[in-house]
Amino acid sequence: MMSLSSSAFAQTVTHGPVVGAVTETSARVLVRTSSAATVQFQFSTSPTFTSPILSTVVNTVQADTFFAIASVSGLAPNTLYLLSPAHQQYADGRHTPV
Fold first, then answer.
1. Domain parsing of the chain, residue ranges
2. How far is the C-alpha of 40 from the C-alpha of 97, rounded, in Å?
3. DSSP state of 75
4. Other CB atoms closer than 10 Å to residue 67's CB: what's the count?
5. pLDDT over threshold 80, residue 5
6. Nearest to 53 by CA among 61, 62, 43
7. Which 8-state DSSP code applies to residue 62?
8. Confidence label for 42 from pLDDT (cuts 50, 70 and 90)
9. Could you write out the DSSP letters of every residue in 4-49?
10. Which pLDDT does position 50 carry in this prediction?
11. Pick the CATH number of 13-89 from 3.90.1010.10, 2.60.40.380, 3.40.50.450, 3.40.630.10
12. At the N or C end, where does the chain have fewer CB atoms within 10 A?
């Protein structure tokens, strides 16, 4: 399990992130959170995430059982990318920028 929040927050990602629908230059990321949240991911070829490529910002909402799918484009073909949360904000205003 991956936690998008700092250790001070008990709410986390409960499913994912799962990367799929991968093409030469794009991908989608499925995520489920434990409550309503705004989530974004960053992709980079560097472990320090210099010059990351950001996914779309998505909202997990109760009507969708807190699932959402973020999209990323602009990836280079035949390149290994690392994935990290870029941002998570809960409905109550707490947020965890990375």
1. 13-89
2. 9
3. P
4. 15
5. no
6. 43
7. G
8. very high
9. -S-TT----EEEEEEEES--SSEEEEEEEESS-EEEEEEEESSTT-
10. 87
11. 2.60.40.380
12. N
Neighbours of 80 (CB within 10 A): 6
64's CB contacts (< 8 A; 6+ apart) are: none
Total Cβ atoms within 10 A of residue 71:
13
Lookup result for tokens 């409960």: 14
- Residue 79 backbone phi and psi in degrees, to 5: -130, 135
C-alpha 95/C-alpha 86 separation (Å) is 11
Indicate yes or no: pTM above 0.85.
Answer: no
Which tens digits make up the pLDDT trace of 58-78? 999 999 999 999 999 999 999
For residue 22, give the DSSP letter: -
- The residue count of the chain comes to 98
Nearest CA to 73 out of 16, 29, 36 is that of 29
User: Cβ-count burial of 30 within 10 angstroms (0-12 exposed, 13-18 middle, 19+ buried)?
Assistant: middle
